[in-house]
Request: fold
Amino acid sequence: MTTFASKPARSAADAPFYRPVNDEVEVFRAAARRGLPVLLKGPTGCGKTRFVEAMAHELGRQLITVGGHEDLTSADLVGRFLLKGGETIWVDGPLTRAVREGAICYLDEVVEARQDTTVVIHPLADHRRELPVDRLGVTLQAAPGFQLVISYNPGYQSVLKNIKESTRQRFVAIELGFQPADIETEVVAHEAGVGIETARALVKVGAAIRTLDGAQLREVASTRLLILAGGLVAEGLSLRTAAQSAIVQALSDDPDVVRALGELVDAVLPRA
Amino acid sequence: MTASDPKSADRFRFLASFLAGRSLGVTEAPAGEAAHTDGRFVFVSAGRSATEQRREVLVQGALLGAGSLDHRLVRALRGRPNVARRYLALEVRRVLAGLAAQIALAAALRPTEEPTTSSADESLEVARSRSMVAAPPEWFGVIRPSRLLAAPAAGPSAPASNRDLRLKFDPTDAPETQDEGDEPGERSRLLELFANPLSSNRLSDLFNKLLGNSRSPGDGPAGGQMAVRSMRRVESVGSSARPLPVPLHFTTSSTPGSAVGVGGALYPEWDVFNDRYRPEHCRVIDYLPSSTPDVSDAAVQHDEILRRRLCRLGLGPKVLRRRPDGDDLDIEALIDLFVDVQAGYSPPEQIYLERRKLARNLGVLILLDASGSATDTDPGGCSVHDHQRRAAATLALTLEELGDRVAVYGFRSQGRGAVRLPAIKPFGQRFGAAARARLNGLRPAGYTRLGAAIRRAGEILKAEAGTPNRLLLVLSDGFPYDDDGYESRYAEADSHKALEELRTDGVACLCLSIGASTPVDALHRVFGSASHANAPTLADLSPRMDELFLAALTELAAPQTRRPRASSG
Reply:
């Protein structure tokens, strides 16, 4: 069974906090008006999911999120028969529900899913906008509000797993990167509930780690990681302890790398 | 290895790289030398405390990052130690003041004096003039113009040149530290052949004088980012990219040879000295040995540990029918159930489909060195070839029993026109008595043209394995050699290149060197740090065979540079 979550549109007061950097919001709005599917590219923890949440909220649509994993089958997306009493009952999968209800369906890290699974979304992602449910023998026409959003982390995937050309060419691609320092500081301060000075110090650490150019680290410090560290600071930990446990230890298991990162973080953080 | 020492200066490498804005290593200078940098490494004074070393790294890294050590400026300091010292004092103050806003450590450590200059050029002016400059404290270290100028000017951001792609053999982890002004080039391997360890090196000295062996200063590993194992597929091709030459197949399905299992192609070979491929250089043929094997000689050792270790590897999802629980309804089972229920039975309700990781999806091609070099014998009278042959048999048997696709090919060569891969067990056949006897009947002969054999084996693996995960397992002493000049650096580079090509194509490679006495560093150069292991017998490797397989396979899954790891001997 797959895990998926759906969120009803929320009120303006608890709108997800998202600070646009480039023209991604305009592009998404335009794509939403046309019902075009969107492919979000970007490193892990740079705000892809948050962006979709914010857009769904702005557009007043329901958001259904499915996390991709390597055992995700097409039945997990479309739906399956379950047995109840002496009868079989059809239960809609998240994708089918989104198609029927006109919601935004967000497939997170879609390349993780098996390739035959991603093919299910093809008819939905082009002009047909329909979902053939072969087990029911019907083809569902997508409701007007339906939009497909998938996310994809180009640097992270292996040579063995890549998104198919035929899949990616159906999508409007929006690239999200790490935000500029000012915006990121604001985001960290807001999300973690820490002061602007603490946020600035953490963003500085993040920026320093990002300049290391990937040679020794598989992933750089994401905004999410900085927010985590900020959260620890808000809970009363010192900046150094928080950075050590939420950033340094999270990025690597190699004791050499951990030590080297520790030195860097220690040098960049303000002296106690 | 110093890397595992918690006090090693290596721990400052991220700090230095961050400060300099490019990849830098940190290592200890020989005792008694002051801290300095050569543009690729920061040398900190040996035996100091971490605090002292840290501030030395800070100074040297910051100088590099601020461009104070650009060739243009450093050239003016050459041969003028006094000016260099004054320049250093001015620049460090200027640079640290600039960094203080950015980096807390710089703010904490910087000297109290305010900087008197505002740019590197101005510092140079002042340093040359007669005005007073406070002497630099000892931890500022020194500027070594000759070492800085010997390093290549281009940073990692410069576009990759031919030199970046060239394989380097001197280990960059621990650069040799030489005295100032004395910068000899790499030792020539050719000259090493003439060097006599016992008497004086008169002959090689003579050659040295005649030919000269210093290399041009720009010939270093520019960039330092282009680690060969960190290759990735890219979306767009840069302007300096060149296509890989393709093999020319001279046997196809329409030629008569294919009917009896003969395949072959002309393969390119990497010429490390000229930085290019030699197209259609090697003729490689694989064939089924036609001689009738002696079936009585077909015993294969079993290795229970190996079997247990490998059985959990390479599993893919498989659909199981008629399960009591699962993801999906098995309609057939459901219909049967209903028929049974209607007929008055009440069978167990096993009506679900379940996907479990059971299917084997690993294809392995075992490439066995059948060259003459494998005839050295150990004290027990067992030759390297015997060891490797037995290991191949045990591995093939184990993998086949576990349900993996497995093939065994031998390889030997006799010059570039005759690289042969006798097929002992092709993918399509069982590892039965005939194949076992064929394996046991394999006699070592000829030479080891490893690169061509790897290219061919990789192609067979890609074409015939039919599994998502593919592994090329080379059983060899890892010492490529052929009689037409295919040796030492050329041969190692070609073999390495062939493996690199395979990894780019998603084929994992692992070399097991069994019973051979090849030095670890030779294996290291050919196979990369993580993808080889050596041991006296296969049984010594069995307990960690799953680790080795996984390491080779995950190297594909997530390309990353690995820190060299000492492999057990």
Summary: The longest strand of chain A covers residues 79-84. Residues 196-210 of chain A form the longest helix (15 residues).
